[in-house]
Design goal:
alpha+beta; five-stranded mixed sheet; 2 helices; 9 strands; 23% helix
């Protein structure tokens, strides 16, 4: 029985598709923000001198941007983003008032893809050199920089390891099917054995003339 060539083609096509998915998967694993200072939702005693975001890998310096705005929408950033190892920091100008601050950041991942996110914190008192202003608080004030529990919102997603495991298992099964299919196809393509030839000079009764 001849093994269908269509099945072999389908198996080889599936192998190519799985290989493509496995090679494309790691490329989508962008860097992620692991924490921030101040933490998202934290309440600090005074407006900090700088804010920072810690990533799981070292981001690229090109195109990095961090904006720190108060409740009135004023941007208090001072200078450019500084990246040391896997930490991106942004200095703030002196005199930042008390109140709620929103931090919006954007960096280039180590795989050259831009990622962005945002977090917020509240200062119960103005920074040194600030003009007198009403204190706007959210929640209970705590002394010092409180690392409240919070999640840094990041547009990137964790790497889907379950897809890789599934792909490896599927690849192993497809390779096995491909090997078996090729063997059966080779056997099916061999010419059938012919009956032994009695010789060109044999007569009708099988004896040589």
């Amino acid at each position: 029985m001849r093994f269908p060539r269509q099945l072999l083609s389908a198996v080889l096509g599936a192998l190519a598709l799985v290989a493509l998915l496995l090679t494309a998967g790691p490329a989508s694993a962008h860097d992620v923000a692991e924490s921030s200072s101040p933490a998202d939702g934290a309440t600090v005693a005074t407006a900090p001198a700088k804010v920072s975001i810690t990533f799981n890998n070292t981001p690229l310096g090109l195109g990095s941007e961090v904006k720190v705005t108060d409740a009135a929408g004023t941007d208090w950033t001072d200078g450019k983003v500084e990246i040391v190892d896997n930490v991106a920091s942004q200095k703030l100008r002196e005199g930042a008032p008390a109140g709620k601050y929103t931090v919006v950041w954007r960096v280039v991942s180590s795989d050259s893809h831009p990622i962005e996110g945002t977090f917020a914190f509240t200062a119960t008192a103005a920074a040194a050199g600030a003009a007198s202003a009403p204190v706007q608080t959210v929640g209970t004030a705590q002394p010092g920089a409180t690392q409240a529990t919070g999640t840094v919102r990041d547009s990137s997603e964790p790497f889907p390891w379950s897809i890789v495991v599934f792909g490896v298992v599927a690849l192993g099964l497809l390779v096995t099917l491909g090997v078996l299919a090729r063997r059966r196809l080779s056997i099916a393509d061999e010419p059938a054995g012919s009956e032994p030839d009695g010789g060109a000079g044999d007569g009708p009764d099988g004896r040589q003339g």
